[in-house]
Structure formats: structure tokens, C-alpha cells
Amino acid sequence: MKRFGLGRMVRGAALGVALGLLSGAVSAVDQGKPAPEFALPGKQGTVKLADFRGKFVYLDFWASWCGPCRQSFPWMNEMQSKYGKDGLTIVAVNVDQKREEAEKFLAQLPAQFTVAFDAAGTTPKAYSVKAMPSSMLIGPDGTVRFVHHGFREDQKQAVESKIRDALRSAPRTVMLDWPLEFRHPVIN
Known about the structure:
single chain; 188 residues; alpha/beta; five-stranded mixed beta sheet; two-stranded antiparallel sheet; 5 helices; disordered N terminus
């Protein structure tokens, strides 16, 4: 009987993960479908998707070991700053098994948006995430508007354009004082 060392088992597991990433769909969350709800620990308390109902949520799944994630954080900071006033909220869900790894990453690349932690991997599983980073824009009604995988410099403008178009297409709510008084120019 041949014995396998730990290094060989780790390489085998990595190969299995890589093959899993290459096979099948990258995400089972489809455009126009409801986004799965979640409640996760965050830096300032529990982060719940339901709390953002009525806003656009750019939901991003990331990990400390992900190179493209390092490039996406400054861009997401920029998007939050640029479009937050228009109703965009960025929520980044970390999938590291050790929160300390995520905290080291955040110390180097601080997030100016909401960060949640899912060491158990429940949320990325619900969203069928198979690539890092994976992101989606969720509309105010809770439906997925678009899904995007990876992060490359040459894709930033296209993703920003989709966000901007979605924000522009959203109906605007006008808050009025109550009770309203209507005065007809002839009757009153």
C-alpha cells in the first residue's frame, strides 16, 4: 500500500478545487432572479441583505489570497464614494476561513464600504460562487441585475457603466410632508 504525504494531498485537493472551478456554471444566481438573503457578522455588527432593500447593492465575494481582489478594493471604494449618494451600497463578503487573514488584507487595503465575514462559506454557496472575486448588482427590489466574475482593469468602465445605467433607470421616490394641502386656483 502506497502512502501519500500531506503535500501530495494538498496538491490533490487544490487540483480538485481547480477542476471544480472549470466545470459547470460559474454562478447559479441568474439575472432577474431574487438574490438569496443572508445575515453575516460584519465589522460594525450583523450585515443583512434585507437591511438594504430599496437600494442598489453591489455584492462582492472576495478572499485575502485573491490577487484581483486587491485590485478591486480601490475601485469599489471609488464606486461607493461616487454613487453612494445615488443609492448604491457596496457589500463585500469575505470567504477566508480565518478572519485574521481578512483583517490583514483590510489593514493594507481599507474598505470604505460594508464588509461581512463568512468563514463557513454559507453565502457563497447560496450564490453558487466558484470564482474570486465574483460580484453582482442587486436591485432595490432584491433581484439580481447583473453578475460579473473576476476583476480586470479593462473591465472597470463596463461594470461602472452598468451600475450607472441601473441607478439612472431606478424610479425616484419623493418625500412629501403630510398632510398635503391642495388649493385649487378657482375653487379656493
